[in-house]
Amino acid sequence: MAATSALFVLDIKGRCLISRDYRGNVSTAEVERFFSKHLEKEVDMESHGPICYDNGVSYVFIQHSNVYILAASRQNSNAATLLVFLHRVVDVLKHYFEKLEEESLKDNFVVVYELLDEIMDFGYPQYTEAKILSEFIKTDVYRMEASQKPPMAVTNAVSWRSEGIMYRTNEVFLDVVEKVNLLVNSNGQILRSEVNGALKMQTRLSGMPECKLGLNDRVLMESQNQSSRVKAIDLEDIKFHQCVRLARFENDRTISFIPPDGMFDLMTYRLSTQVKPLVWVEARIERHSRSRVEMLVKARSQFKERSTATSVTIELPLPPDATSPTVKTSVGFAKYAPEKDALLWTIKSFPGNKEFLLKAEFKLPSVLSEDAVDRKPPICVKFEIPYYTVSGMQIRYLKIIEKSGYQALPWVRYITIAGDYELRLS
Known about the structure:
The chain is α+β, with helices and mostly antiparallel strands and 426 residues long. The protein is 17% helix and 42% strand.
């Protein structure tokens, strides 16, 4: 558990701006003495580490703008949980003040104290959902009225959703977004290959709906003895939003949840299996004289013809002193970006199993040696492929059940995008 003795907000010099004592066993003087001792070492607090121990007290802190948010505890608390909690505190304060800095805290210290009383009780984190807190703590209200009641989300188990939400049309939008990270050497050998995926949801649902989501998860499909044409996949490093019932998932791999209202990430996952490059780029450089250099580039899409990549940008490195480039492309357009020492080749639509060419000619100062052409940073590629996932992830079903019995419209989209996607020339 993350049992915290007190929470402090310090300025850049370690002086206490705001504090909230939950257990009475760590004083403000102790915290200021500890922080000033570390600042005297003239080290960057972030590089020094966010977790310290001094005189029987554990300190966990983060820096945002010109303030430090610090939790102090005399117990053996879970440091990772405290770090997550501190980031949630920052998110809540930013929700109220837009910019979290020393001046905004001084101008709104009454609201800050009200928030600190709600987000933690006797040193244990409580309510850290900004949307819920904003329903009964207003920025222009310094103290709750006696007749004002907290929303049901504070008093029931579903702290991320309020009761009484109503929509004329009930809809759910689910985007399966996969980001491909790839590094290929000059011999065409894949050095690094990784897919990071996320299920991003936007819900516009009335009441307190119960949602059930089915994936083509290998463990689930094998446990149900399902023989299907749908390809089963192995998911790694799965992380869920707090609304998902983890015990249910661990028991039978069913994703069951009451969703928050609005946008949120339901799940993230990772696949470390080797991925075939979706867009392959080859570049050949030829020197025709001491000052004239020619570059021939082939870009080839290596996915099925029924898919099409959009917003493709291929960044081709050039020598830093290249001048007067002339470019011809079989499709799209290319422009010289001297600030990046590169040609940017943009292709609006790149169908699967196609190959396009670019030919560029540029000049180099004659005083340079041939080593100027040998400078070869990697080729960087950006793209999006709608209606396509690298992993083969599929949403098998999305059921929405609410006691009023309304019919909800689920919309599912798939998209693959390039993350750190680099092809080395040398």
